[in-house]
Amino acid sequence: xxxxxxxxxxxxxxxxxxxxxxxxxxxxxxxxxxxxxxxxxxxxxxxxxxxxxxxxxxxxxxxxxxxxxxxxxxxxxxxxxxxxxxxxxxxxxxxxxxxxxxxxxxxxxxxxxxxxxxxxxxxxxxxxxxxxxxxxxxxxxxxxxxxxxxxxxxxxxxxxxxxxxxxxxxxxxxxxxxxxxxxxxxxxxxxxxxxxxxxxxxxxxxxxxxxxxxxxxxxxxxxxxxxxxxxxxxxxxxxxxxxxxxxxxxxxxxxxxxxxxxxxxxxxxxxxxxxxxxxxxxxxxxxxxxxxxxxxxxxxxxxxxxxxx
Length: 309
Known about the structure:
Elements: H1 5-10, E1 15-22, E2 37-45, E3 49-55, E4 60-64, E5 77-82, E6 87-91, H2 101-114, H3 126-140, H4 147-185, E7 190-192, E8 198-203, E9 215-223, E10 229-232, H5 233-236, E11 240-243, H6 249-255, E12 263-268, E13 290-301
Antiparallel strand pairs: 1-2, 1-5, 2-3, 4-6, 7-8, 8-12, 9-10, 9-11, 9-13, 12-13
């Protein structure tokens, strides 16, 4: 940190506090800390001026006026440094240890797989994926025989096979979704919206109802018909805020049936969710009926009604 000449002069009466927290201390000499650390530096000049700086990684340097003698830095300790000519404190992060080349090559494979269409994994069996990897290996190593000719000869049939499997999966998902919606609608206390969303209140609230123009704060978990969780604010450990008219229609209809403070199960048909195309990047196949557990934590704007408490 650099300061003006006037500020440096005023620092003659500064008090500096340095806090360090190290995760590994063994085997290191005095004044050394482990690779993972936290440093907080606070200057308070004559009790009237101060600033704080923090760092988790890399090199941290600080120059102070007002230090009389060196101090050993220890884990989880506050050290008071008072009056004197000055000090520079510096921490160096050692480089990470080298990884095994096989581990790095595997990471490259993961990255290559991320570039592929995300729904491709649902259209190929494990044995077919292994054959696909053999084709990739042969092409990379120059062992493939006239690859362009094979693409011209087999490309149309390959596309037809994948499209057929995608249609079959959508038909299967639609049938499972219809059964799921019927079962949800038959439960006691369930209500079906005009568009077809089944809403079952789990816990009642007393706050306002949101409108289509509201902004809301929610906790939620989304599942497919087979129980697969594809998204969850609970797993992230924080609620989500959004304008209601910016999400899928199923959410818009379902949440308008909920009061602030309530929780509910929303069973959403595919046409009010992500439709035939699905959301492959989010793990939602085409034609999927969705089940959301939703807590309406807060109606942030545009709410109507509700009990004032």
